[in-house]
Every structure is written in structure tokens, then in C-alpha cells.
Amino acid sequence: MSNAASNVANNAADNAADNTITGDALIGGVAVKGAGGSFQATDPALRAAIEPAFHMVSAAQIGQACRLAEAAFDPFRALSNEARAAFLETVAAQILALGDALIVRAMAESGLPRARLEGERGRTVGQLKLFADLLREGSWADARIDSALPERAPVPRPDLRLRMIGLGPVAVFAASNFPLAFSVAGGDTASAFAAGCPVVLKAHSAHPGTSELVGRAIVKAVAQCGLPAGVFALLTGTGNGIGQGLVAHPAIKAVGFTGSRSGGTALMAVAAARPVPIPVYAEMSSINPFFLMPAALASRGAQIAAGFAASLTMGVGQFCTNPGLVLAIDGPGLDAFADAAAAALAKVDAGTMLTAGIAAAYQSGVHKLGAHETVRQVMAGVSADGKGAPALFRTSAAAFLSQHALQDEIFGPAALIVACDGIEQLRAIAESLEGQLTATIQMDEADTEQVRALLPVLERKVGRILANGFPTGVEVSTAMVHGGPFPATSDGRSSSVGTAAIQRFLRPVCYQNLAQTLLPPVLQDSAAGQAWRRRDGALTRE
Ligand code: NAP
């Protein structure tokens, strides 16, 4: 990194010392005013604009951020595991150093309560540290060595060595529903950084002040670690032009996105239409089927109903793993479950939703579902302006199978119960579903064989199958999968939560017969004993 670049980054760090939100974008380690029109955040509880004004970045500013990211890629990916781990930990420390100012601003911009946001900050910091641990452990590089076999007949085998490298600069779209853990320094950013990829971040227009604070924390960490300023940029603005311009930029090599199906598919189309197409990892829409197996329903339907209602209404239902579809066999057990769930939901007041747009989309989705001839309303609270009240509906399996629109995601605390005439119809419903993030099975031991028959269908449909729990509350860990076939995500081979998320931003490179001095350290003979490697097929740390 040049001295000039270092000074620039340090200036940005100093400017942020008092946690002032200036309404600026962060490009090249400095705060810059977007060259376009202005917009403001809105407090969704008060329905009032919050100071200051932010400005839309221009195409030229997007281009500048992308070119700087491109220039930062080689030095950033050349860092040792230890240096990149230290950077992630510095980002975490800088976020914590923002103190209460971060929580207060996030509360104002999202309507989410303090306890939720403090928990989310803990998760954000925790996942940065998890990726730091992953880097130090080292197996992420998937190093492989196939020793040369010069005597092999009829053709000798060359010396072959493989490792993973980062894809290049990643465009990350912050999610509205996790202003910290899936926003500026959230899972997409942490996993891209871990992979050695610079990040150009499109801030969500619902929480620009929160984004600026966290963005400044990252800029400080970049400077403190002596990294090129292009490792991170924060772009401000609303509307489709900024995101589409970012994805179309030739320096961008992959995309991480969490949001609507329409937004995700629009960005997939932009990425596919580029002269050089790039992968898009979009997490979009999921109704998370919740299976009530017969024995479990009979033995503890009311108890399950209470937990279900709590999961459905947590965070005003604004979780991608919200259980929006209940599947069970018709009968008194299901009636009792529906009554108990309705009673529990009736006790939950309408809650402030993240944005006026999300609240309006929720209310319209509930209205549309209730208007279906074949759908009966079990209960529905009153959703005032900007708020979402719980709602529960019921329909028959025959109706569900014949109307695809009943599978549409309603983002908020609404669920549809589908009553089946038997276990075969329950399986047929599972078979008819689009790709999902999760499937939950409430089961007793007596349900085991029916669940065994259902599992192959669910494995094809979802990313995570869980038994006797509730799908909200996603653990950030090594074995977690937060993904699933389309439209849950744009690429069902990946997870956006947990250490597996790094794989989205890596690709393999093979080195054939390269001299030891030219090989990356992890593949040199001298690294034996210091790194996990697959040598001649066997995984070893020698
Ligand atoms: P969104 O509208 O998809 O926006 C997400 C981000 O993508 C924002 O930065 C947005 O820009 C940008 N964007 C949206 N459409 C675009 C397009 N066609 N081209 C380029 N950029 C685009 O999501 P949202 O604002 O978070 O919420 C809207 C709806 O998304 C919700 O009602 C819900 O249905 C769904 N949602 C689902 C999940 C989930 O996990 N399943 C999570 C959040 C939201 P702006 O900043 O200008 O808006």
C-alpha cells in the first residue's frame, strides 16, 4: 500500500472518531458526497424522516469504487491467513468501538428493539471472528498435492498442486431485515473478505446511517491494518440504477444479495447479460414448510402451536426462515392446533415493520391470500399503517395443489395451513413446493417411518431440515446451511450463513510442475505439518 493511500485511509478513520453521520459514501478510504439526488432514512415507528440527507452515488463513483477494488484484489488476497484474520478481528473491534451510537441509530432506522439489535451486533462480531478462526485453521484453501510419477507408464504424471483463491471484487447488497448481521459487515462481507475478495457494498436505503457507521468502522480497520483503501467501499442511494450499474461493472466478479425475489432475479439477469457473466448468490424467497406429523399432532398439538406462534411473530415475521406454511392431515388434531395457534396469535399486537414498503407489501399479501375463494381466514389482527399484525389462513391440499399463487412468500407474520386427506397427499404437497431455505418436521417416534419416506423429497427441496424445533434463529457455525434451491436462493449449491459461505467466493487454481519458489506457500513442500493438505488423495497435516 502506498503512503498516500495509507494517509487517505487514516484521514477517513480520524473523521469518524466522533461517530457523526455525514450522509456520505465511502470510496477509496474517504467520505465522499454522492453526486446524485438526495434521500433520507425514515423512522418506521414515528414515520418521520431522520437527518442527515444522503446522496445517490453516480455511475462515475460506482466505477471508481470498482476500479479501486480491482487494484486492491492482488495485495489483499496475497495476505497471510494470519493477516487477514487479524483484519477481520479489527473490523469486529471497530464495530464494538462504535458503542451505543450504533444501536440507537439502528433502532431509529429499523423499528427493531434494542435487545434484538444488541444480539445482532453480537452475531455480527461473532461471525467475523468465526471467519478469522477459519482462516487460521487453514483448510479453507483446500490444498491438494498429487506427487509427480515420472516412471509411470505409458505416460508419466506431472506434479499437480491445487488451492482455492478469491474470485475478485464482490458486490454485496445489504439486507433490510438484518441491519447489522446481514448488512455492511454481515455474513456476505465477512465471507468475501475471508476469501480475499474486496467488497463494494450497496447500502440498503432503509438504514443508511447504520450503514455509514459500520462502513466507517471497516474503513478504520482497513487503515489500521495497512491495507489498500480499495478493499472496501460503501455506496449510498436508492433505486435500481446503482445496484444494476454495480453488478454490470467489469471489475465485479461475484454478487451477494439478500432481499426480494424480484430484486434478486433482476440482478441475476444483469449478471448473466454481461460480456463476462458472473455468479450471483441471491437469497430471496422462502415459505419454510412446517410439517405436523400425525402422532406429534395428536400428542402435543397445542404445545407445538404455542411455539409455532412465537416463531411466526418473532421480529414481526420479518425473517427469511419464517414458518409461512403448515402442512398436516385434516382432522380434530389439526383443528385443535389451528385453534390454539389462533388464540396465541390473537395475543400478539401488530408490530412496526422495517419499512413502509414492507408493511404495505405485507398487508396487500394478506389481503390477496384471504381473497382466494378456497382460502378461509382462521384469524387476522388489525394491521395499521406501517404495522403488521399476525394472520392465519387455512385451505385444502387440493386447492393448494391447483393454485401456484398460494406458494407466494408473504414477508411478515402470516401463515397458511394446508389440510391434507392423508400421508400421500402430504407427500404430494411437499413434492409440489418450490425450493425452500428450511423444512421443519414436528414428529414423535411413531412418525419415524412416514418421515423416512418424506426425507428424500425434502432433501431435493430445501437447504436445512429440522426436527422438533422452529426454523427462525439460524446458528452461525460450520455445519449450518442457509440456502436452498431456487427461489430460496439463486444457487442451491451454497450457504450464505456459516463458514461454508466462503466457498461462494472461491475458485480452484492448479499449478503443474511449478518450481517450489514459485508456488504459493500453502503448496510448498516446506509447508508440510503447517497446513491441512490432501496429499496423493489422503487428507493430512503430516
Ligand atoms: P429489495 O427490494 O429486494 O431490496 C434489496 C436491495 O436490492 C436494495 O438495496 C434495493 O435497492 C436493491 N434492489 C431491489 N430491486 C432491485 C432491482 N430490480 N435492481 C437493482 N437493485 C435492486 O428487498 P427489501 O427492500 O429488503 O424488501 C422488499 C421485499 O423483499 C420484502 O417485502 C420481502 O418480500 C422481501 N425480502 C425477503 C427477504 C428474505 O430473506 N426472504 C429479506 C428481505 C426482504 P434500494 O435500496 O433502492 O431499495
Would you summarize the structure shown here?
It contains 15 helices and 23 strands.
Comma- or semicolon-separated keywords:
single chain; 542 residues; alpha/beta; Aldehyde Dehydrogenase, Chain A, domain 1; seven-stranded mixed beta sheet; five-stranded mixed beta sheet; 15 helices; 23 strands; 20% strand; disordered N terminus; binds NADP nicotinamide-adenine-dinucleotide phosphate
**Top CATH class of the largest domain:** Alpha Beta
Structural class determined from secondary elements: alpha/beta
CATH topology of the largest domain, which one? Aldehyde Dehydrogenase, Chain A, domain 1
Strand content: 15-25%
The residue-averaged pLDDT reads 95
Tell me the Rg in angstroms.
25 Å
Q: Which runs of at least 5 residues are low in confidence (pLDDT < 50)? A: 1-16
Question: How many domains in all?
Answer: 2
Share of residues in helices? 25-40%
Please state the second-level CATH architecture of the largest domain. 3-Layer(aba) Sandwich
Q: Helical segment tally?
A: 15
Hetero groups bound? NADP nicotinamide-adenine-dinucleotide phosphate
Strand order in space, largest sheet = 15-17-18-13-12-19-20
Largest sheet: 7 strands, mixed
* N-C termini distance: 36 Å
CATH homologous superfamily designation of the largest domain: Aldehyde Dehydrogenase, Chain A, domain 1
Tell me, briefly, the overall form: globular
Total strand segments: 23
What does this structure look like?
This protein is an alpha/beta fold. It folds into 2 domains: 25-34 and 54-284 and 496-502, 3-Layer(aba) Sandwich (Aldehyde Dehydrogenase, Chain A, domain 1), CATH 3.40.605.10; 289-467, Aldehyde Dehydrogenase, Chain A, domain 2. The protein is 39% helix and 20% strand. The strands form 6 sheets. Strands 15-17-18-13-12-19-20 form a 7-stranded mixed beta sheet, sandwiched between helices. A 5-stranded mixed beta sheet has the order 21-6-5-22-23, with no helix packed on it. A 5-stranded parallel beta sheet has the order 9-8-7-10-11, sandwiched between helices. Strand 8 (199-202), helix 7 (208-224) and strand 9 (232-235) form a beta-alpha-beta unit. Residues 1-16 have low confidence and may be disordered. The structure holds NADP nicotinamide-adenine-dinucleotide phosphate (NAP). NADP nicotinamide-adenine-dinucleotide phosphate is lined by residues 173, 175-177, 202, 204-205, 238-240, 243-244, 258-260, 263, 266-267, 283-286, 320, 358, 361, 409, 411. NADP nicotinamide-adenine-dinucleotide phosphate binds next to helix 8, helix 9 and helix 12.
